[in-house]
Fold this sequence. Notes:
The chain is an alpha+beta fold and 254 residues long. It has 10 helices and 10 strands. It is globular and about 55 Å long. The two termini are 12 Å apart. The relative contact order is 0.13. The strands form 2 sheets. Strands 3-2-1-4-5 form a 5-stranded mixed sheet.
Amino acid sequence: MKDTKAMACVNMYGVLGALENLCALDDAAKRILSGLKKPVAMCLEVADGPCCTFHFDADGCRMTEGSAGCTCKMRFASPEKFNAMIDSGKPGLPVKNPVQLLTFLAGPFTKLTDRLTELLRPSAEALRDRAFFEESTVLTLYTIAGAISALANNDPIAKISAEYTVDGDISLGIRNSVAVTLRVKDHRFTTFKAPAERPRALMEFASIDLANGLFNGTVSTISEMCRGTIRLSGMISMLDNVNRILDRVSVYLA
């Protein structure tokens, strides 16, 4: 079972949150943004759900909480309505600067989200290209990291694991490639897309190929842990709880 509000948070902080990283890593996304004549700060506001602003300019994308600084805004009457935009492209209600909003949605935003979908749900043929394979895997890690916090704070089942997680930073990453921080404070999770300076616990995959296999379910987590290709250190109870939340992530992102 998926909770609709939790799904909206996964879509906002996990899926759309990966636009920041897409625009920093992907050449196609950079070309799309290079065509922007002026910056656009698009707020997506969900009733009884998340509210975030995506700041786009020729240099990239940055996501912030709330509507401060937005140049245009779209409002969704419910989490279900917002999820419908992600699943089938049904827009919400323009409530600020509708001309800019609709122009941006129909052009750059759709092109960016289409490119993100190509990378997060890649074809077998596309994955034969090594550069694409690596970028897809890294973007998937960023998406998963955002989804972990979204579910830890909103999904009824994942919140149980969050309640048993002590305060501190958890480092999640791929060796010699990328690392993110899951910060826990008073049983609430926050994702930072940067390495942890002083992690209390660490989970690190030995390679991009291993991470891709784990994300796609083609590799056994238990077998790889026995082989030592998944490094676990520090407060193991924190990692146990994250693993339980990851089980919920796989349900929501399936």
